[in-house]
Amino acid sequence: MSILARFKDIMASNINALLDKAENPEKMIDQYLRNLNRDLGKVKAETASVMAEEQRSKRLLDECIADAEKMERYAIKALEAGNEDDARKFLERKTEIASKQAGLQSAYDLAASNATQMRQMHDKLMNDIKELESRRSMLKAKWSVAKTQERMNKIGASVTDTNNTASAFGRMEDKINRALDEANAMAELNAAPKDDLKDLAAKYDTQVGVEDELAALKEKLKNK
Predict the structure, then answer these.
(1) 53 near 111, Cβ under 8 Å?
(2) How many whole angstroms separate alpha carbon 121 and alpha carbon 45?
(3) Is 131 within 8 Å of 15 (Cβ atoms)?
């Protein structure tokens, strides 16, 4: 496809729309710049040929118009000299030239239109490249910040998961402690009831033993 055939596509292209659709704007910027510079190179390569054709068509048209005007001047001079036949011949040649002029005019109009399109494409591509290059650093910086934020969000989610795990372990520890307390309580309840009277009797049993021992010592002293 020639660059002129792509005129509508190039003129209709929109940088902002393309970037909005891009999954990775950073890579899209570099790729789009490469495409723009490639198209610009083709435009410049063909512009010289198109402009040369426009100039050639213009020169041929101007020469044809000049020849027609010249034939008319000769016809006037012939009439002024009283030579009507000569004047008729000059006018016949002017008619032939006029017929040729129509074709040259069409060729020039087409060449001029092509040249205009080339200039429009050139200006569009230059403006797109300039705009994209001026925004590239800013857009890449924003993309880098966005990716960093995305990584931080993932890390934050991981920390949250860790906290949730720690919280789960804490709840499990509380459950175990409660179970242990309940088991101890149950063991205490299942133990034999304490006999307070037995303990009190043991106290007095100990005191009676001392009195007996004291009496024995007194008796021992009497016998000395």
Answers:
(1) yes
(2) 13
(3) yes
List the structure tokens of 121.
């494409």
Tokens of 139: 């857009």
pLDDT digits (tens, 9 = 90+) for 155-188: 766 655 656 666 777 788 888 888 788 777 777 7
CA dihedral for 13, 17, 21, 23, sign (positive or negative): positive
Per residue in 6-41, is it b (16+ CB within 10 Å) or e — as a string? ebeebeebebeebeeeeeebbebbeebeeebeebbe
Would you tell me the crossing angle of helices 25-80 and 84-190 to the nearest 10 degrees?
170
> Nearest-5° angle of CA 188, CA 194, CA 200?
150
Type of residue found at 6 = R
Look up residue 143 and give its DSSP letter: H
pTM for the whole structure: 0.49
Q: How far apart are CA 217 and CA 222, in angstroms?
A: 9
Backbone angles phi and psi of 23, in degrees to 5: -75, -30
Residue type (1 letter), 177: N
